[in-house]
Amino acid sequence: MFIEKDVCNLDIDLKIDQIYNLACPASPIHYQLDPVKTIQTNVLGAVNLLELARKNKAKILQASTSEVYGDPVVHPQKENYFGNVNPVGPRSCYDEGKRCAETLFFDYYREHNLRIKVARIFNTYGPRMHPNDGRVVSNFIVQALKNNNITIYGTGSQTRSFCYVDDLIDGLIKLMNSNDGFTGPVNIGNPNEFTILQLAEEVIKLTKSDSKIVNKPLPENDPSRRKPNIDLAIKNLSWQPSVQLKEGISKTIRYFKTIIIPDIDQKDERIEKYFSKAISDIT
What we know:
The protein is α/β, with parallel strands linked by helices. It has a single domain, classed as Rossmann fold (3-Layer(aba) Sandwich), CATH 3.40.50. The protein has 9 helices and 10 strands. The chain has helices spanning about 30, 35-55, 90-110, 135-145, 165-175, 195-205, 230-235, 245-255, 265-280, and strands at about 20, 60-65, 115-120, 125, 150-155, 160, 165, 185-190, 195, 215. Strands 1-2-3-8 form a 4-stranded parallel β-sheet, with helices on both faces. It has a two-stranded parallel sheet with strand order 4-7. Strands 5-10 form a two-stranded parallel sheet. Helix 2 runs parallel beside helix 3 (about 90-110) and helix 4 packs across helix 8. The longest helix is centred in the first third of the chain and has 22 residues, at about 35-55.
């Protein structure tokens, strides 16, 4: 059963055992379109779902983010690092919204003895990403398949750690079903670190694209380095990622090839029809 609701106005009464709260766009271009709504989704949405969990005595998992670390001065990032976040920048609606949601989860844990789980998700990618998602992996693959210039912000020396979606889902399920005494927060991500330039070069190689790399100014507060320490996940969840970048990117490219047609004006209409059908199939 699929029920579409706004977590900010959650007028629903369900009997449930588990809640996975993944409500919020994760791409900067999307969450910055309506920053107030982004904060509301993170904060009001968290309160509403925590209340639903409390009424049902259900276990609830918060999909938090590596963005709670901001532009880190500690590397790699461990869960006991408090972060380096700008509270008034253009990314703050997401960063601080997720940080506040974590606060709410632990307040409900302390005040109501609620069974909570908090996962800090690092960059995730894979099939079924929207081609206009706006995140770096999908951007590069779409640009490469169209033989367009691949856009790198800054010099490309900034690093990220990319986790394939299957590994992420496995980690979230293991966290949800772990011992109630283990709340997190726990990093869920791939600890292998790559520069953005390395990612672009790998995508061009795997797509056999004629794309060229072009550089644009770095966005404000864009993190310079990002790499999770996953010792806690290994110890408490017996979890670590198994899909490495080349394999994961290859699978993602194969998916995008099914919905991207280079140099055809009707491509966006085809993509939207594809995703409309996917949503229709679910409902």
